[in-house]
Amino acid sequence: MPEPLLIKRYVGPLFSLGSSQEAKELFRIFEVDAMGRESCELCGYRGEPGTVEKHHIVPIEVTERAGVPESRIIALCQSCHRELNRWYSVKVADTGYDTSLNRFRPKSPLEMVREYEFAFNTFAKYKQEQKKAT
After folding, report:
1. Residue 1 domain-assigned?
2. Boundaries of domain holding 99
3. Does the pLDDT value for residue 69 go beyond 70?
4. For the whole model, what pTM was predicted?
5. In a domain, 134, yes or no
C-alpha cells in the first residue's frame, strides 16, 4: 500500500514560562497525514492528534542558563518520548572529570547544551538504524 500523502500543519503557538516569568512563543510545523494524524519524527508512528507529544531537545532550564534563545522542538510518540528520556538519564551527566584538578566539576550550561544535543543525535541515529532493520 502506498505511503499516505503528508501535509504540513501549523501547530502553535505553544507557551512556556521562563525564569523571568515572561511567556515565550514557540512555533513548530508538524507533519500530519491526509487523515489529520500527527507523526513521530523518529519512528514514523502516526496517531490521532494529541497522541504525539512535543519535546524540547534541550530542556528549557538548560537553554535559559546557557543564554540560548530556545531549544528545537520535535514531535515524538509516547514510546519514543519515554525512551529518549531514559536515554538522557544514562547519557547526559551534569558533572565531568577535570584532569587538571583531578576531581569532578559541574559542567557549564553550554557544555550541557552540547551534551543534550549529542545525546539526542545519537538517539535519533539509533532509532533510524532500528527503523531500517524492520
Report:
1. no
2. 6-129
3. yes
4. 0.69
5. no
